[in-house]
Amino acid sequence: MAPDTFVVGFDLDMTLIDSRPGIAAVWDAVSARTGVAVDSALAVSRLGPPLEYEAGLWFPPEQVPDVVALYRSLYAETAIGAASLMPGAAEAIAAVRRHGGRVLVVTAKNTDHAKLHVEHHGLEVDEVIGSVWAEQKGEVLLAHGAAIYAGDHLGDVRGARAAGAFALGVATGPVPAEDLRAAGADVVLADLADFPYWLDDHLIEQRLADLDTQLAGLGSVMVAFSGGADSAFLLAAAVRALGPEKVAAATAVSPSLPDAELDPAREFAQSLGVEHHTPHTDEMAREGYRANAGDRCYFCKAELVEVLGPLAERLGFTHIATGTNADDARAGFRPGIRAAAERGAVTPLRDAGFTKEQVREASRRWGLPTWDKPAAACLSSRIAYGLAITPARLARVEQAEVALRAVLTESGTPYRNLRVRDVGDTARIEVDAELVDQVAGMDEAIEAVLAAGFEVAEVDPKGFRSGAMNELLPDPVRYR
Fold first, then answer.
1. If 301 and its partner were Cys, which of 19, 152, 294, 336 is the partner (CB 3.0–4.6 Å)?
2. For the chain, which domains are there?
3. Burial degree of 425 (CB within 10 A; 0-12, 13-18, 19+)
4. What is the pTM of this model?
5. Where is the NAD/GMP synthase domain (predicted)?
6. 325 near 230, Cβ under 8 Å?
7. Which is nearest to 144 in space by CA: 336, 6, 328, 346?
């Protein structure tokens, strides 16, 4: 379930909104206009089916179209403002968006009134589709590729089932939880307040299953193993799917790899029973890499895959896999991803839809020591675009970061993320945002960085952020 096809549908009445007070008021107004006594309390106790169905319980068939038209003419002014959000509704929608998904509202209510409700409550949805019920909802959900449909009625369960979507019932409407389960709901929640927690678990389990299937289908794989959280999780997942004899880890050794990363990578691979290879790459021989324009990562990844390809073939591994995740694919400017794809590398984490957050959570569940390891991009990512990449620059950055870590550790400063960016003769220090002022006032921290060979050292007031160097690229380059 990749992020670009991850779609969740929600019913409206008694799932996202409690529209009973407003609907009751509309029926009372219809009664006053027509002289037919509609029991509005009874009507709102069975919300779910189309309006025509309810009107047909009170009026003869030939009058139903006119009653429906009257009801709808009164609805906007009478009912919209009287509705309230159901518990957890806004949070449920936010949870889908946090995972990179799209949100549909699919309801028996007519589309115009459904949109008014959505707009009135400021619900951030991608599309509202109205005037569909039960299996008709299934047709809409299927057409939009919805993977999950949440609703409070038996008709909602039938709609999800018709679409082959996961049927999530919420016991906030007229149908008891046990009846929703009996009708085929895959899971029933008391209300949407529990939805974000359920979604977290559901997506991880779904994506773990997808990842396992993908990896098993590869037959054998060499993982481009940097030692970071993503490639470590991918390596562990490959071992689970294929067994250690069908998996290898390859950590490229070059001036752009911090020395401190190599031993932990070797130890991790050994803990999985996987052979660990350390081929040498020479990205420095590539003019595009040395020039350090905005597409530097293209040449680095090209070198990596072109070195690993013959090694994998010689050792009998049929595929090379990188730890690219779904967040990487959405990041905009990632020329390295393109270079690896052009050379046939596979990206199982991205294809299964794993975000960085999910990689860490799944790693934590599996007890991997890398689950909370800070991001550790290659040393060349610290060099400002336009400055030539040289072994001396890389060594200077590494020396500065090692010295700065030592100072912070010795002073008892609890940091998580740290970078020293080379922007010429100046070193720009990035630390966790909450530590910016503290580190800026530590003379020994500044001196440690200057001792590596920089003329000026300053702490970035914005703090650490991944891809900070991309901020210096002009927009047409950054997002092409």
1. 336
2. 3-15+84-202 (3.40.50.1000), 20-79 (1.10.150), 219-376 (3.40.50.620), 380-478 (3.30.300)
3. exposed
4. 0.80
5. 216-284
6. yes
7. 6
